[in-house]
Amino acid sequence: MRPFIARPEHGVIWITGASSGIGRALALKLAGEGYKVAVTARRHDKLLELQAEASEQPGSIIVLDGDVTNAEDMEHTVAAIEYQHGPLALAVLNAGIYLPARGEDLNHDVFDRSFAVNLHGVINCLVPAVRHMRARGHGQIAIVSSAAGYGGVPAGAAYGATKAALINMAESLNFELDRMGIHIQLVTPGFVDTALTGKNKFSMPGLMSAEDAAKAIAAGLKSPGFEITFPKSFTYRAKLVNFLPYSLYFRVIRRIIDGRRPSQASGHHPNPHPAE
């Protein structure tokens, strides 16, 4: 049976982390294709600006308040979509943060905050979304991870760990959700030009604009495939590196990082990670 693929007539698309970056660009892209898009993020004013920008599009933007780290908030958000705006046809769980975690300055806060948003924030949205979709017998969910989840890189101990967890979670859920008629997909971007990557002071191979990333995701959401990854010239190589024995893997990563490191005089330590 062909996986369920959400169309405008099926109901509402929900995008978390939609106030900037990929989430914002994707909301505009899908509204332009005629979808009704519900958006949540911490910055309410930015969502209102997004709604105003989409006012002339064939579709529409619905602004809903809610913090992904609060499970009760997300229960209320899904209920509001379902009972006020229409059935939840597709959830794009995109909200995420990047906080560097370095061995010389390990602390609980970086890990707690990273896992609260990047992992538990997804789970808080996923649980109510699956419950409603299962009751209808169909639905679509896209979990936004990152190529940083493929393997460890410097400063990525917290961010990469959360993204690796999302990859494993999506793979595992694919078995059960498929039987329920829920099409789950995994989004693994490489480097995308957003506020997160804008702080990086090193070469980012395959860097894409948020708009181009949104186009790639929008196209992938209309396909039956499990993984939506881009740019493939970078993410496929990132996958292949992780097949190496650890002795070679660490050597390759060190060589890549050393080749992109700014001069020591700058005092800056780069954070080589893909991020949404």
Automatic annotation (TrEMBL):
One Gene Ontology term of the molecular function aspect: oxidoreductase activity
Keywords: Oxidoreductase
InterPro entries: NAD(P)-bd_dom_sf, SDR_fam
Record protein name field: SDR family NAD(P)-dependent oxidoreductase
The species this protein was found in: Rhizobium jaguaris
Keyword presence, Oxidoreductase: yes
Claim: Electron transport is one of the keywords in the record: no
Cellular component aspect of the GO annotation: membrane
Family: Belongs to the short-chain dehydrogenases/reductases (SDR) family.
